[in-house]
Amino acid sequence: MVKSSTFFLDIVKIVIIALIIIIPIRFFVVQPFFVRGASMEPTYSQGDYLLVDEISYRFSEPDRGDVIIFRAPTGESQFFIKRVIGLPGETVRVAGGEVLIINDAFTDGFVLGEEYIGNSITGNLETTLNENEYFMLGDNRGASFDSRAWGPLEHDLIIGKVFLRAWPFGDFGLIDTPQYETGR
Question: Could you give the 3-state DSSP secondary structure of residue 60?
Answer without folding.
Answer: coil
